[in-house]
Amino acid sequence: MRPARLVLQGLILGIAAFFILGPIVNLALWAVAEQWFFPHKLPLVYGFKYWETVFRPTGDALASLVTSILIALWTVVACLAVSIPAGYALARRSLPFRALLMLAFLLPQAFPSVAVYINVARIFYGLGLNGTIAGVVLVHTVHALVYSVWITTAAFAAVDRDLEAAARDLGAAPLRVFATVTLPLAAPGVIASAIFVFLESLDEFTGTYFVGVPDVTTLPLLMFNASMQGNYQIASITALILLVPSIGFMLVVERFLKADVLAKVGA
């Protein structure tokens, strides 16, 4: 029975590795393929010709990357400006209809994104926000608030109330208790939520497409345009560029999000 069990485990791991690593390997092959066409299973000519095209100073990739990072950073600032006070209030105050308030932040995720963003684009057009970075940041903020608020709420809920009580007993004012005790202890969860927001904004396509086009071009939009035009090498290189911060930041998040914080999510 043991050899059969080992074979079964190896088969399961192999299938999982294929579905996880297969797309990445395919991207890597396209990124270095200068000639590759049907029916050949592998590229005919390898090289870095398209990497030079992507990273040349006159290309669109670097400008799109800078725009994506700028939008993601502003989205993080906007989300934290909402989620820190909201998360503290939801975790530390006896708010009426708390469950409904938490649910409200999930609503943008509950509806088909295309229908939502089409209507958002129509409203933003009337406000003069279409085709602006500010409009794209607002859309990304609404989309990412669910991660920011829920994780930040869990981070504040995981802070030991006895430590806050001890600080108040020593004469610290409520604002000082928050600044010197509560916020530093909740900081790992807050940082994790900021990283989630940054990655979500960096990869966001649909909202950017309906609100930002044609004046705001991010890296996901550039990847989409390259794919639609059949430039699979450019699209693959762009996807690999987006993959690097995603993997790096997720490793950081894994260190910040501990079991006690995760246990408080939605509680």
What report would you give on this structure?
With 267 residues, the protein is mainly α. The chain folds into two domains: 47 residues, no CATH class; 204 residues, MetI-like (MetI-like fold, Orthogonal Bundle), CATH 1.10.3720.10. The chain is built from 13 helices and two strands. It has a two-stranded antiparallel ribbon. Helix 1 packs across helix 12, helix 2 crosses helix 12 and helix 3 runs parallel beside helix 7. The two termini are 44 Å apart.
- In CATH, the architecture of the largest domain is Orthogonal Bundle
Q: How many H/I helical runs?
A: 13
CATH topology of the largest domain: MetI-like fold
Structural class by SSE content: mainly alpha
What number is the mean pLDDT?
82
Number of domains: 2
Our estimate of the beta-strand percent is: under 5%
Short structural description:
With 267 residues, the protein is mostly helical. 77% of the residues lie in helices and 2% in strands.
